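Replying to the earlier thread about multi-chain prediction with a worked example.

Input:
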Amino acid sequence: MANDQVILLDYWPSMFGMRTKMALAEKGVKYEYKETDPWVKTPLLIEMNPIHKKIPVLIHNGKPICESLIQLEYIDEVWSDASPILPSDPYQKSRARFWAEFIDKKFYDPSWKVWATMGEEHAAVKKELLEHFKTLETELGDKPYYGGEVFGYLDIALMGYYSWFKAMEKFGEFSIETEFPILTTWTKRCLERESVVKALADSDRIIEYVYVLRKKFGAA
Amino acid sequence: MANDQVILLDYWPSMFGMRTKMALAEKGVKYEYKETDPWVKTPLLIEMNPIHKKIPVLIHNGKPICESLIQLEYIDEVWSDASPILPSDPYQKSRARFWAEFIDKKFYDPSWKVWATMGEEHAAVKKELLEHFKTLETELGDKPYYGGEVFGYLDIALMGYYSWFKAMEKFGEFSIETEFPILTTWTKRCLERESVVKALADSDRIIEYVYVLRKKFGAA
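Result:
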């Protein structure tokens, strides 16, 4: 694996890219990072992900792997000698996959609509977002990490969104620390890991970016 | 595994349930089938899938596994001695997962909207559906099965929709056999398998069901 060529096409604010960066760091995989604005659609992005033309794309020895959750599975399988990402038990694995899918299917939409909408729609979206935070906190329960004692797949899947939490709080007018203390303790625990901290974007820079997006989406 | 208790909560027209039935049959797993109308939300369904309250739910020794693609992975891992479902190579596995996700993220919506919409929306949906069929045919290429020489994960993921093909053709006013001959040859190849044939619902019964749904959705 020493001569592997690993490239990550990613865009700095992407919660999905942050996941992949965490996983690569957990495994100690060195890679070349290529900043790729997904609004631009560079020839390399189109070549590597012709179907969705989205980042992140992980390119391993010339072969593209698309979609962040699929990348986590791939990274875990290929670099299997370092810290495992997915649980080894099939049932625990199915639960981790279920909740990661929940995050992208249910949590994702209100997580950005909370800063992109106004009025009645905003109120409905905020309510939904808070419900999903609650659900995710309940699923964590009193475990240190989602998978139990060890940081892994579902922690990565949700911590990918961490850089966006402050923007959600600002435009949603709520405090994660006040409303979800257990989840907050968990985020602090995850933030003790270098793999997590180094992968995350600065929360204030995300807020500046959100102002740009709000103009783009006509919400400001 | 001989004393395993396996229950499948499923509803006969579900393309997702048909996938799981195919996978269980491929592995030779015996199970109890419990017909579960997802519009009704039985106490057992709510208990086993409290988040989405959707079928299919695979219950293995009392533990629920939700979401059909996650079930395929689970079945492949737990009953690993019989015919493999996923490719063993991590890159091929990532491709199979990518395309299965494409089917549910992109193909699914137009696959039902083609019989649930009218007028301009219908025309747009039909165009999209045909494009996705073309994309899926191109991905198959000249391979006998999606994974190569052996029937597996992505074949199951797409063949789950087969019982609905006739309804798509009828309300979309197109012929899969004429437009997508390579895909048609592949469906015929898959239909030679008992695991597939036994899992599928009758296409004409699906069309009758579509008439019921069209009334429900106000499209008739």
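The mean pLDDT of chain A is 96.

Feel free to reuse this layout for your own posts.
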